[in-house]
Fold:
Amino acid sequence: MRRDVDYRKYCEGIGQIQMAVFPQNEDIVTIGIDAAQKAISKIKDKNDIDLVMFATESTFDLSKSAAIYVHHFLGLKPNCRVFDIKQACYSGTAALQMAYSFIDTRTLNSNSKVLIIASDIVKYSPGTSGEPTQGGAAVAMIMSKNARTLLLEPFSGIYTCDIADFWRPAATNEAKFDGRLSAHNYLKSLEYSLKEYMYESGLTKTEIDYNCFHTPFCKMARKAAKQYFPYENIDKSLIYASLVGNSCSASLYLSLISLIDHSESDLSGKRIGMYSYGSGSVAEYFSGIVADEYKSVSFSDDNKKKITDRIEISFDKYETFCSPTPFNCKIEETSYKNIGNITLSEIKNGYRIYNLTTL
Ligand code: HMG
Structure:
């Protein structure tokens, strides 16, 4: 109402019911650490982690990696490679595929593992057409020789092209975009990458049991499903995205988690097709087979609780969340329940200081 837009455009036209916004003491690091803590709680020995990659396009520091904060708060060993990885929303997939190759080369230590954190908070300028497609979330994944969620298959289709559909100049927090061009290129890139995937794999579309899509807004994923997989029902994979909005690097993996958390039927042995798209642009269609023990490493109840625990805020409050964070400030305590046990407490000369809090 405050933007003078019919709410049906948001709910039906774009397919978004709610969108996640974050108070000043949460950022890509705090939500990323929470996800990473859960992921490593499922492995026997965190000293097996030899590489940490943080995939994001909403970093606040163009030099120091967000991954270093994760490494610190998780108490990982010092002889561990740690860095950030960027290519718009494709960065989570870039990290995943690099991790796959890394693990494949570990012949001396078969327990070697890679921790990937995909974390983004997406902001567009207030009042622009992109505003209702903001959002944010973090997903953490462990890559190892013994996959317990998804066994990646060794073929994929990739499509890269240089295009000005979405970008974020270094001086600003807010993304710039050409909405129509981006939606067109999302679909065109799916067509090309899917064609290559089909050729490489020798599979037919009927051998793909489910699909998960990068979801900048739910209608985009529905259009993709309708155009390229006419038989497809993707409702379950879109439940979280419809409630948190675009989570960029995390979005495709949030779609997989949404499918796992809401599917009544057993997914073991099913092939999931995964479409990753990052503006600029790089797209990849790949697939994986759901592992038999996938339920033992899922956090379904906790994930659902995280969504229901959120509180609705007023439009005026939302607007205060949109203002840029100052270069020097103590972050005020908020009454909002934090996502995890790390909060941003201060920014000194642009440097972020985090605190461990009790839950
Ligand atoms: P817009 O111009 O505000 O909306 O842009 P529109 O006029 O295109 O309308 C959207 C839909 O709502 C249309 O349906 C309308 O008919 C319908 P469609 O024709 O598409 O089926 N509509 C209504 N329905 C019911 N009741 C009504 C009503 N009014 C209209 N009253 C857009 C929408 C999503 C393009 C805009 O929000 C935007 O530009 N968002 C940001 C860019 C984006 O998300 N692009 C997606 C592809 S690019 C990508 O995925 C990469 C990205 O994640 C970034 C990265 O890689 O890092 C973004």
